[in-house]
Specification:
This protein has 372 residues and is an alpha/beta fold. 41% of the residues lie in helices and 19% in strands.
Length: 372
Amino acid sequence: MVAERPIRAAAFPRAVERVAHPPADPAQLYAALDLGTNACRMLVAQPKGAQFHVIDSFSKSVQLGLGLETRGLLCQASIDRTVAALRTCQRKLALHKVSRMRLIATEACRRASNGAAFISQVARETGLELEVINAEEEARLAVVSCAPLVSTRTEQLLVVDIGGGSTELVWIDLSAVPWRERPRAIMRLHSGFVAAPTPFAAAKVVDWISVPLGLATLREQFEDVEDDMARFALMSWYFEEALADFTPYQAEAPQVDSRFQIIGTSGTVTTVAASHLGLKRYDRSKVDGLRMTSEQINEVIRSYLRMGPEGRREDPRIGRERQTLIMSGAAILQALMRVWPTDRLSVADRGLREGLLYSMMSADGVLEDAPL
C-alpha cells in the first residue's frame, strides 16, 4: 500500500439514532451519508444562519472493511450488515422526503475488488445510489467540516481525519487571508483544493496526503502481535514511516504559538477527549472545540496502555464497540503529535457528513454570510 497524494504535491451494537424533530419543509432539507470502512453515518439537516440544524441522524458500526486487509474484498457478513443499515437510512430519507442529498462511500469501497458489485447491490436492494469518492475529495470534506473551529489567529493549519480505512492530512497556509476571514476561507475550499479565481483571499493548500492506514486497516496489520504495548509501539512507528513523503514532515516544524493549529477529527480524537474530561456519558458540547495539550493526550494514551485490553473493554469512556480499535487510532494520533511537536490539538466532533452538508449548502448559497 502507498499513500495517495497529488502529483503536484468485534461487537455490533444497536444503531445510534437521534430522535427526529417535528416535520420540516422538505424543500429546505439536505442529507449527507458517509459509508466508511467501519461505520455508516447519516445526517438530515436544514440551513440555519451560517450553520445548519440537525433534523435526524443515524450511526451504526457495520465494519464493512473487516478482513479487507488480508482478503482484498468485502465479506458477505459485512455486506449484509451494511445493506441492513442502509435500508434504515433509505426509510429515513423517504420519511423526511429529502431530495437534496449526497451519499458517499470511502476507502473500503475504493480498495475492495468487489466494491463496484457491492455498490450495484446497494442500488438494487435499497434504491440508494452511493458515490465512491476519491482520497482528495475525502480530505477536502474533512477540512470543510472543521471550518467553524479554525481560529482567526491561525496562519498555518493541519487538519487530520483518522478514518477506519485511511487517514487524511491537509496542510493549509492562511497567512495571506485577513484574520476575520480565515474560517470562511476554509469553507470556500468546498469547490476544490485548487481555488478558482475569486475576489476573496484564498486559503492555500500547501500539501495533502491520504495514508491507506486507519483504525481497522492498521490494527489488521499487527493483529498477530500478542503483546499489547509492543503492538501499540509498532503501529505508531509504522504509521510515522508512511508519512515520510508528506512535504511538511520534511520541513522545519512551525513555531509553537497561536499561529499554528492542528485540528483532529475522528472517533479516536473525541474518545481521547472524553477520557481526558472523565465523562461517564458522552457530551458533544463539551468535546467539540476542546483544546488538549500534548501531555494530556499522552497521559490518556498511557492510561489506556495501563488498562490493557480487558480494562479498556470495561471502561465506559471507551465502550465495547470502540475498544477493539482505540489503540490503533491512538497510535496514529501519537505519531502525529511526535512528528509535529505542538502543545495543543483542537478536537472536532465532526467529519465527512458535516463537510458534505456545508459543501452542498455553500454551493446553493443558503448559508448566511455571517461569522462562523
